[in-house]
Amino acid sequence: MRQELIREPAVSGMFYAGTESALRRSVREYLGGEAPEHDLVGCVAPHAGYMYSGPVAGKLYAHLRIPRRVIVLGPSHTGLGRPIAVAPHTAWSTPLGDVPIDQELASRLTEELPAVEADADAHWREHSIEVQIPFLQLRRPDVQVLPVCLKHLGLDDCLQLGRALARVIGDTGEPVGLVASSDMSHYEPDDEARRHDREAIDAALELDPAALYNTVHRRGITMCGVIPATVMLEAIRHLGANAGHLVAYATSGDTGGDRRAVVGYAGLCFYRKVHPA
Questions:
Q1: Which residue of 15, 32, 177, 193 has the lowest C-beta tally within 10 Å?
Q2: Is 70 exceeded by the pLDDT of residue 275?
């Protein structure tokens, strides 16, 4: 098993710019000048190369006030490592600098749920969490993150993990944001991708993790991060989130021009809406 203290970036120079100045400039352009509207309780953020998903990710992160501590849940594309793998590193490096890993949250989560294991192999070449980090760095320079890489899990396992996360977050006594990293439909004609993605988005906005999980599996929607999104929804439901909306949506056809086989990207924000007395 790998034992690195600092995780070096795996997709720098491929999914996003490989130099500090170019990366800072591109992320700032994607973020634009919008004022944030909601505290980050939970969100779904895309993880493709920035040239494709950067506009959606930028609108989402510009919409959010980022707390000091953020847990990022990402799907496994490599198949390496344990099914529920927290990063055992002390920091993750990007061209913008090193981001501390929240080792206290990692320790609490592994104690709370035995299925959660510290495992560097799962994170070795995985991009789904890494591409979120530069946006978090620019929106909150003192951010600490806990990367959690997830293989495919059954619904009961997703709900169990979500409840464990809610307990761990609730015990901190301070805000902890949850990012579920996911792209939407993969390699379908643009109109079909949009139709399928709308079904998944509507299910997620019900704040019902089982509805999202079952819709995606029953309809064969190729949403790669359905597991992180299901886990996130269960966690925030127990943390008091009661509202959500779609901040931005696009397909790779909007940026690349080819609409014959696209990937969908959605930015979803979930929060606590205070009802008037």
A1: 32
A2: no
What do you get for the CA distance between the two ends of the chain, in Å?
54
Strands 97-100 and 91-94: antiparallel
What whole-number distance in Å separates Cα of residue 102 and Cα of residue 88? 10
Average pLDDT over residues 127-137: 98
d(Cα 75, Cα 244) in Å, to the nearest integer? 22
Residues 6+ apart with CB under 8 A from 262: 185, 187, 188, 189, 190, 193, 251, 252, 253, 256
Fold type of domain 6-10+28-271: Protocatechuate 4,5-dioxygenase; Chain B (3.40.830)
Buried b (16+ CB within 10 A) or exposed e, 144-181: bbbbbbbbebebebbbbbbbbbbbbbeeeeebbbbbbb
Token pair, residue 245, equals: 């909306």
